Amino acid sequence: MAQRFEALPVWHLQAAAPTGAGAEDGPAAETRILDLRGLGGPDDGWAELTQTLRQGRDSAALACLIAEPQDNLPTERQIALAVALEACAVIVEAQTPAMIERLCTLLRVEEVVSGRRDGSTGIIVLFGVHPAALFSAASLAAASPRVAALAFDAESLAARLKAPQGSAGVRTATGLVLLAAAAAGVPAHAVLSEVEAAQDLAAQTASATAQGFSGVIRRGRAARPAAAGQD
């Protein structure tokens, strides 16, 4: 079926220091992040999308934001695409160490299929969407050598708590993520709110670093390429 792939969200990670303690190919100082969470359904023209993205892949560092590791086709397709694109890491809102173990199994299979080195795809655990996951932050950070970094989305957590970002709950969560990252020996990155992302990036990176983060992740958007062979 003829189809264009429009408005595939692209995020950006700006690290103040090298990352990837859990994997040799961890994210570089500047990394593009493809948000694949909305892909993988039966009508997505999956083969065409995979071919188009692989053909357009350049040498820039790339990570992929994927859905929570569940036993379903969309998640497995997102993981397969991330590995096929030679992403240095997948970013996931995992809630339990068991989810990390499941993700590691799927990554290992796809690395074999794609001929990539075992362990070459790292994992960045994203916190903020699921408040309960914060109580397992230390366990999630230490769940696998593939865990290359943690990330914290204060804006999403504040929305779940129906509280401002400067509230006690958000401040406590920030500390939990930073402590878990330090204990596991991996960096932690702060996801900027839309307001923060519109401000000076250097200033926001410096502010995040002052809190103990190693860098920032800012949301953005870019057009998906048309499927191969389509106008």
Would you kindly provide a brief summary of this structure?
By secondary structure, this protein is of the alpha/beta class. The chain has helices at 46-55, 73-84, 97-114, 137-141, 154-161, 168-184, 194-197, 201-211, and strands at residues 10-15, 30-35, 62-65, 89-92, 122-127, 147-153, 188-191, 215-218. It contains eight helices and eight strands.
Output the keywords.
alpha/beta; globular; disordered C terminus; 8 strands; disordered N terminus; 231 residues; TIM Barrel; eight-stranded mixed β-barrel; lyase; Pyrv_kinase-like_dom_sf; 8 helices
Tell me what the structure shows.
- This protein has 231 residues and is α/β, with parallel strands linked by helices.
- The chain has one domain: Phosphoenolpyruvate-binding domains (TIM Barrel, Alpha-Beta Barrel), CATH 3.20.20.60.
- It contains eight helices and eight strands; from the N terminus they run ββαβαβαβαβααβααβ.
- The chain has helices at residues 46-55, 73-84, 97-114, 137-141, 154-161, 168-184, 194-197, 201-211; strands at 10-15, 30-35, 62-65, 89-92, 122-127, 147-153, 188-191, 215-218.
- The protein has an eight-stranded mixed barrel, surrounded by four helices.
- Helix 5 crosses helix 6 (168-184).
- It is globular and about 45 Å long.
- It comes from Rhizobium halophytocola.
- InterPro entries: Pyrv/PenolPyrv_kinase-like_dom, Pyrv_kinase-like_dom_sf.
- One of its GO terms (molecular function) is lyase activity.
- This is Citrate lyase beta subunit.
- Keywords: Lyase.
